[in-house]
Amino acid sequence: MTSLNLEKASRIVDAALEHAASQGMKPLTVAVLDAGGHLVAFKRQDRTGILRPAIAQGKAWGALGMGLGGRALAQRAEMAPAFFTALASASDGRVIPVPGGVLIKNAEGDVVGAVGISGDLPDNDEACAVYGIEQAGLIADPGQPH
Amino acid sequence: MTSLNLEKASRIVDAALEHAASQGMKPLTVAVLDAGGHLVAFKRQDRTGILRPAIAQGKAWGALGMGLGGRALAQRAEMAPAFFTALASASDGRVIPVPGGVLIKNAEGDVVGAVGISGDLPDNDEACAVYGIEQAGLIADPGQPH
Amino acid sequence: MTSLNLEKASRIVDAALEHAASQGMKPLTVAVLDAGGHLVAFKRQDRTGILRPAIAQGKAWGALGMGLGGRALAQRAEMAPAFFTALASASDGRVIPVPGGVLIKNAEGDVVGAVGISGDLPDNDEACAVYGIEQAGLIADPGQPH
Amino acid sequence: MTSLNLEKASRIVDAALEHAASQGMKPLTVAVLDAGGHLVAFKRQDRTGILRPAIAQGKAWGALGMGLGGRALAQRAEMAPAFFTALASASDGRVIPVPGGVLIKNAEGDVVGAVGISGDLPDNDEACAVYGIEQAGLIADPGQPH
């Protein structure tokens, strides 16, 4: 079974930032968490706001918390706002239900971690996360809405 | 007076999971709390998100907190979102107002604990909680909306 | 690679309680966490204090937090009290440095979770945790002091 | 004025880990914060405890919090334990007063950030932080005790 190690997590971070640079995106913050929601690798580019570390980690943590990528979480938060208000408190603010939180899966379909990216438009953040995960030889699950 | 003990609480957990398996449900997290809101028995099935323990416990704790099952809480949260935002803070995030939090009552009508289940649709979570409570010879109150 | 699933975690809980019964121990609270520190299986016996769930989970979480069993943590806490006061705050109270928090390892030596037990003397709590882990076919690391 | 940017922060992290590898140290967690105490770059090596991210960040944050490296903080915590217990609460657990939290200064003597490292003995953690900072062309202040 493939799991997430620092080498793969660092590759995800660097590939995500390479993709952002190639597309001329705004400065990004990239966090990679393991399956338990604990930080493995992180980079915040220059000239980014001081809440970005919490947002990037919250996108990833929220995905792991519910077992759903941020795009699916965003849809659910729109349909059930009171539930997501409760989740924000229950998680001490660690659930940020927005695209850009992407589950990392291995070939067996196990969740081995998550990436959270913040700084550009949510769709762009997500595209960088997906690119980074695929460059590391893993499978990205951004959360398809139903 | 019948109260909740570990034997009954464990029976509730296992019966709820048997019901879920017989219905082909998604993997569940099941928490049983005593009347004081303290955990007695708990099982989390494989491949479930890391926030599920807090959600399952929050459904049960919220029911005990207000003396109302999660279905009634959900209706109230829809009508009074600011109040439930305040409750989330007041309870340190331990109130999750969603079906699937079910009060456990004895024959005298006393609340002796609560079950919280998370993982499938709220209606399915609730059905498993009710089934488990009844298999343990106790009375389930999921919270009828008014 | 062997990891921890609900079946093994439940076996650990039940075997630990069987051992306690065979030795005539006081009522126990047993928590099994996965490698990320999230609850998998839990039982609290009748007539136990309401802080026991937090203590049992804190013994297990502290072991995972530092990668050291509770017996080693207890020794370190005695030598470096200010550091452990800081850890209590940094972890939001989830580090309880006492014997009875035991790491669960697989044959490859990976940490796959932890058991925390509270209710009897720390040495007895620890003995039940070790017994439970071994009955589940896994390797117990209670933390040898140096 | 030289300030800390992502390029320098990443250089610090990687150089610290190279030094640790050359000395055969245990797996480390390395965090670099900017002058405002916000995360810039971070790596956690494989097989490290789940509290290590908080400890590494807490060593760096505590140094920035008091304007003193972790070695000086450790000495003060020993002399004034009640004050540091209060700081732990006041900072929400973000002050870890132990060697291994090292201020980063520029040629003008301004504090531009801090490094926190956790995983090996505090002296070794600190040596890696100092090495990393110097490799990035900046000045390390580990906090001389008085």
From TrEMBL, chains A, B, C, D:
SUPFAM superfamilies noted in UniProt = GlcG-like
Q: Which Pfam families match?
A: HbpS-like
Output the InterPro entries linked to this UniProt entry: GlcG_carb_metab_protein (IPR052517), PduO/GlcC-like (IPR005624), PduO/GlcC-like_sf (IPR038084)
Can you say what this protein is called? Answer: Heme-binding protein
The upper taxonomy is: Bacteria, Pseudomonadati, Pseudomonadota, Alphaproteobacteria, Caulobacterales
